[in-house]
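Colleagues,

For the teaching module next term, I've prepared a clean inverse folding example: a structure given as tokens, and then the sequence designed for it. I'd like students to try predicting residues themselves before seeing the answer, so please don't circulate the second half yet.
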């Protein structure tokens, strides 16, 4: 794209570029059929969370500092049993949707038991959770997980944008770089462990604007 723009400025015409393969780029959102099913799953899970069936899940979330307004803002829900919803299989657990740019990118579930604790519904695509909080703001904090990001947004959302890739090992897809370009200062608030250090180093390799936040050790509580 940069080469095309430079060519137009100097010659008035774009340069010839190789034809792209007929496949969905990794940076694109899931297809529309998946989106419809995911939106239905989100609605069902939201409804369940606020019924008697979701009482234990609500209690667990509240203990993590997530109040009702925060949970509703991020459209958190609860799936009470493993099931298929419009063709998508979702295990039992707390549903964490990633909705950015008007599209559903992923459905992540936090299970009450079993390994791993977190699973993605098949068809989910990597995205920058919380990217919409970066609009018209000069600082951002990159958290290790979604619950951390939601909690920080609750208390500091007027001071900084809050985003996450869902884990310390997540890597930013190129399609989301543009969301971070206007941000003057970026802090990485990962856990004080080996995975957190490696994840922070990967972010710092992207730009000199990225710094690792030094958090008190007692704040690092494992989920």
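(Answer key — instructors only)
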């Amino acid at each position: 794209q940069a080469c095309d723009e430079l060519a137009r400025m100097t010659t008035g015409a774009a340069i010839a570029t190789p034809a792209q393969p007929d496949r969905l780029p990794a940076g694109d959102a899931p297809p529309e059929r998946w989106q419809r099913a995911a939106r239905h799953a989100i609605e069902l899970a939201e409804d369940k969370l606020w019924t008697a069936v979701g009482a234990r899940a609500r209690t667990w979330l509240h203990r993590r500092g997530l109040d009702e307004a925060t949970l509703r803002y991020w459209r958190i829900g609860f799936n009470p049993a493993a099931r298929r919803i419009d063709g998508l299989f979702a295990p039992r657990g707390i549903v964490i949707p990633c909705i950015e740019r008007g599209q559903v990118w992923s459905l992540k579930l936090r299970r009450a038991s079993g390994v791993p604790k977190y699973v993605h519904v098949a068809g989910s695509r990597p995205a920058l959770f919380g990217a919409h909080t970066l609009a018209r703001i000069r600082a951002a904090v990159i958290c290790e997980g979604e619950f951390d990001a939601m909690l920080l947004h609750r208390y500091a959302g007027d001071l900084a944008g809050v985003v996450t890739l869902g884990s310390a090992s997540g890597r930013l897809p190129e399609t989301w770089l543009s969301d971070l370009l206007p941000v003057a200062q970026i802090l990485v608030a990962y856990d004080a462990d080996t995975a957190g250090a490696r994840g922070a180093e990967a972010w710092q390799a992207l730009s000199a604007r990225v710094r690792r936040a030094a958090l008190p050790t007692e704040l690092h509580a494992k989920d």
